[in-house]
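EI: anyone free to look at a 239-residue chain?
SC: sure, send it
EI:
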Amino acid sequence: MNLGATEALKLTSFLTAVALLVQNLEFWRLRRKLESLSLRFCPRVFSALLGLQLASLLALNVSSTSGPAAVSVLFASTLLISVHFRGRFSGGADSMGLVLLSGLSVAAWWPEHSSTALIYIGVQSTLSYLIAGVAKLWRARWRTGAALLSFFAKTSPYDVPRGFEALLGRAHFARGVSWFIILFELSLGAALFDSKWLLVWVSAAIAFHFLNFVAFGLNRFWWVWISSYPALFYLAQTL
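SC: here you go
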């Protein structure tokens, strides 16, 4: 898949806007329940931040490169929402969201550096997989499958569907899936040097994140990481 900087930027902007809109609507639905938690700002400030984020999302022109002011306000409001939860609401997904917005902000304010912004997003997305793969490879619990099995323990915070639990809850199967995940994450580095292999890898990654969404409810990871894939294709073209 060959993408020019303008096309890749439009796709990244659109997908990021969709990802953040999903997050925003989710927060509106949960905000009453979240008031009982120990958070950074009072409920009124949090609601104001959500309103500011939603307004900036609506102001974005997703059919072309986003306006500098709208993207900057979106970045600031999203950062403050993350601060509100002390970065613990959805961890890595929040971090990747800010990576996307920081890159889009650079491209919006300095269009001549759009290529650099896309490469930055692509590199950050690549590192997120490679670092995760190395970390899992380093830990014995992942190599043996024990880490994956812990997701199905009674003390796990995840409400895993019975079908996944029956399949992945088996020790030998969990070990095999763990090694598949490790090798899959580490293989992105090689996939960047072959466009056909990268297309296969991205297709598998979309399926992987969707399964995580279905099994563990990690919908934010699904939307945010998909938003970085146009930058991956653009990065691959520069290598």
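EI: The chain has one domain: 5-238.
SC: 👍
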